[in-house]
Amino acid sequence: MAITNISLLTLPVELIHLIFDFCDTRSIVLSFRYACKQCYTLVESYDRFSLNFDSNSTTDYATICRTIQPSNIVSINISNHYADRNESPTLLPLFARGQWTRLRSLTYHNDNIDNLEYILQCIKSNCLVSLSIHSTTYQCGKIAALISSVLERFNLGKLYMNSTVDIFRYLQWPTSCTLNHLEIHTCYYSDYVLILNQLCYLKTFVMKNCVMNVSDGDAYSPSNAKLDVGLISLTICECTLPRDSIELLLCETPLLRHFKLVCHRTTFDSIFDGLDWELFIRNNLPALEKFEFFFSYRCKRPDPFHGLSSGIASFQSRFWLEEKHWFVVAANPIKLPEFWLYTRPLSNIDYATSQARYELASINDGYRLIARPIDAISHTDLNVVCRQNHLDSVTDFALFSTTKCGCTIDF
Asked: F-box domain: from which residue to which, for each copy (predicted)?
């Protein structure tokens, strides 16, 4: 049977455009486009470009901007890492061309809020659904006014802002706000309650931390959580709140289905107690399907296995293993004076989790020496993988005692 050679250009246009979706714009416009007349035509008909303006890059943005029609751009990421570099000569003329009929996502890493305001004014159609503002400026009032205006003009579904808690003093949430995904830096508890009550379409809420301010007064008592609060996913990335304050936050979200919590402690408190979590979840979060957490505390330990068995014991009940299928791991990093307790699998954890560590999982009795990042391991990954070239770097290998049963090594 003869073998037929298939060229890329013999594929359907729709399939080639789908391949373009996974390519960077520079390669498409400055390389593929000039390969031949057919490639030129394929690029000219493509209408899902994603532009990434980076001040660190040497890419010829001026040529790219002249080549692509604004109506063919769906996403723009603007990153200016240097205060003395101005993106205005290249970017602002691009936006002044108008015809932004398909732009759905805008990400802005810059402190020049005036340029961002101009860019948003150039987007005339109601197409923008995602806006991310990464700014270190303290012009909270100006940013808040801009965000309020954007929420009034567009049917925004996703908003990210890394401003400080002060921004909520100025921010006005429109009554018709369509946000379903909100990511912020930090807010007060009173702002948290206000957000849940005013953003009726909100489904996913991600924050770095929540602050209990004594000026909130009576806001610290449970606010009789409204059953129409539709939040189903809550993430707190660097939580410093005590256990009772965390529970207060969760009492506002009776329909929660996903909860992710990252805490770093200096003492071993009740946040490490699986029984307390079990009782609270049973009584207050009946719809919770996925609970991800990473807890750590600084400690001194006499040996590398110290505290692993006792730390994991309260997470080995029927509730954790059979009802919810939430699997927990206790670990002692070799080079850090810390104790870790985390769920497996765990995604997108911003911490030095690739440390070599001794660990004990709630689903078995075997101790393991492991060095892979936490978010690269699934709860079904129980195979022993031992590479000889890694063993030389494990200086504490001799700490394994013959009295420790079921000990394996995993890298």
From this structure: 5-53
- For residue range 64-112, list pLDDT tens digits in order: 888 888 889 999 998 875 444 555 566 777 787 777 888 999 999 988 8
DSSP for 49-106 reads EEEEEETT----HHHHHHHS-GGGEEEEEEE---TT---HHHHHHHHHT----S--EE
Rg (CA), the chain: 26
Residue with tokens 């979840």: 281
In the predicted model, what is the mean pLDDT of residues 25-38?
92
DSSP label of 188: E
Model confidence at 221, pLDDT cuts 50, 70, 90, reads: low
- CA dist 108 and 61 (Å) reads 16
Q: With a threshold of 0.85, does the pTM exceed it?
A: no
Structure confidence by residue, pLDDT tens digits, 282-328: 999 999 999 999 999 988 776 778 789 999 999 999 999 999 999 99
| The two three-digit tokens of residue 139, written as one number | 């012009």
Q: Which two tokens stand for residue 172?
A: 């006005």
Question: Side chain identity at 338, as an amino acid letter?
Answer: E
Do residues 145 and 121 lie in contact, with contact meaning Cβ atoms separated by under 8 Å? no
CA distances to 31, 268, 337 from 298, in Å = 52, 9, 6
Query: Residue with structure tokens 């660097």?
Result: 238
- How far is the C-alpha of 302 from the C-alpha of 286, rounded, in Å? 40
Among 180, 231, 181, 186, CA closest to 208: 186
Supply the DSSP symbol for 3.
P
Q: 49 with 25: CB under 8 angstroms? A: yes
* Residue 1, both tokens: 């049977």
Cis peptide before 302 (omega within 30 of 0): no
